[in-house]
Amino acid sequence: MKKEEYRFKAIDGDHLARVSEEEVSIRMIDVQDVRQLENAVFVDTGSPHHIVFSHDTAQMEIVPRARDIRYSDHYRQEGVNVNFVEVQENGHLFMRTYERGVEDETLSCGTGVTAAVLAAFKQEKVGAHKVYVHTRGGELNVSFKPAEVGFTDIWLTGPAEFVFEGSIEV
After folding, report:
1. Could you tell me if residue 169 is inside a domain?
2. DSSP string for residues in the chain
3. Domains held by the chain: number
4. CATH number of the domain bearing residue 123
5. Does the chain have fewer CB atoms within 10 Å around its N or its C terminus?
6. What is the pLDDT of residues 79-115, one digit of tens each?
């Protein structure tokens, strides 16, 4: 099996992707902005994320609560993605995301998964430098290295699966 590497530029900078038949890994930008808030953690992974740790993430109605946070005075101007995260007994995370721009819950969010892992590590909720995250869209994992300020060598990895094909008549 041949692995391939690709480089691409996104709104937050340059990235490296490694693609195989089984998985795709993307090197995320280094993260320096991780801030403890009153009842949450703010993490800027290239997109701003407000991380709320909860014990009932799977059952909660996240949209009304997330909209209150997303449209609060604190975030009104720029907006923020809101992630609800539950730490599971096995050290994995379960996460649900309300995404700005979409203005609703999405099945998964790569920058949100990354932010959740870094916030959980910063708060000592996980100790590993590779953490698995379950979302309604599937499972991803994030590996990273803690740095003097923030985190470096951050890799987001997930399965390489064909999930949808569409067409539109113009």
Report:
1. no
2. ---EEEEEEETTEEEEEEE-SSEEEEEPPPB--EEE-SSSEEEESSSEEEEEE-S-TTTS-HHHHHHHHHTSTTTTTT--EEEEEEE-TTS-EEEEEEETTTTEEES--HHHHHHHHHHHHHTTS---SEEEEEETTEEEEEEEEE-SSSEEEEEEEEE-----------
3. 1
4. 3.10.310.10
5. C
6. 999 999 999 999 999 999 999 999 999 999 999 999 9
Report whether pLDDT(1) > 80.
Answer: no
Supply the pTM of this predicted model.
0.91
The structure tokens listed for 90 are 């096995």
Answer whether residue 16 is part of any domain. Answer: no
Residue 120 counted as domain residue:
yes
The domain of 92 spans 4-9+21-159
What is the spatial distance between Cα 145 and Cα 163, in angstroms, rounded to a whole number? 31
Identify the band that residue 13 occupies on the pLDDT scale cut at 50, 70 and 90.
Answer: confident
| Terminal-to-terminal C-alpha distance of the chain | 39
> Cα angle vertex 150, ends 78, 37, to 5°?
50
Residue listed under structure tokens 């701003």: 48
